[in-house]
Predict the 3D structure of the following.
Amino acid sequence: MTNRPPRQLSLFGEPAPAAGDPPAGGHPVAAAAFPAAVQRLGDAVPARVHLGTSSWSFPGWTGIVYAPHGAKPESEQRLARHGLAAYAAYPLFRTVSLDRTFYAPLTLDEFSRYAAQVPAHFRFVVKAPAAITDPVVRKNGSGEAARDNSLFLDAAAAAATFIRPAVEGLAAKAGPLVFQFPPLGRRLLADVPRLAVRIAAFLAVLPRGPLYAVEVRDPQLVCDSLAMALRDAGGVPCLAVHARMPPVEEQAAAFGLDRADCPLPLVVRWNLHAGRGYADAKADYFPFNRLVEEDLPSRTALARLARMAAAAGRDVFITINNKAEGSAPLSVQRLAEQITG
């Protein structure tokens, strides 16, 4: 019998436990006993550099991030509900991407419960709901046809359902709020400058204060038009290391993030190995406990950008998916080694 990959969406439907709540099953999720070299590496990473992963609910990380419960790994469901504090105890993790918010909004109380489980230096990268960034309401299981999305780039809806709960709930632990746009289709991409202006106009009327980052999945949008529009609106690009997108150094150059005088924070989501489909990578890399296909060009480029940004006093947020190289914690470790080396 072949192993099947876990259902990674289980995290997105699990509520966060309240601080101090006893975990289901009667025992806490324990952090792994990590080597002293990992602690030294964590101490060596510049304070402004926040490295982490895309969620924390993977039993395959047992022995790296989590201690086993007896002879067995913790279950995916228990890690999703109760593993965040153990995740945040790992010396290399100073952030995590809250991806479940892409599928449904969270309440202020849910954000507050997450914030209560991590140390003061920890920052959350939070994805905006797809209801704000997808121009189409997709087909669903009831057979309803796709249709135009009336909430696309609706700043009032974004503020009410996403920004205010996230900012008030996470407080000082709120990092970048990422608006990830899916492939937008021929109609919108027919006039890229006009689309860039629409995105900038949306950002410009959002509540001031949070760091807003824009991630695109269309190579046509890695361009001067969007770079200038984001600068005008006070937003920053989020580099998408993804099979659909140009290499990370090309994206950084297009947005001006590779310049020593760039004032912008560096926000990166390392999502998928070049040339890979998501489902294939998920199946081939499971159970996510080893590096299967290392992506040295992306890692080297990210390390250089992170060193440059940190040296200039800029904040750095890089979150890594298991589908980048096979095991996100080990990718974080290799990246930290290159940043400090």
Remarks:
- The two ends are 43 Å apart (CA to CA).
- The beta strands are 49-53, 95-98, 123-127, 136-137, 147-148, 174-180, 212-215, 236-241, 266-270, 316-320.
- The longest helix spans residues 155-170.
- The chain has a mean pLDDT of 92.
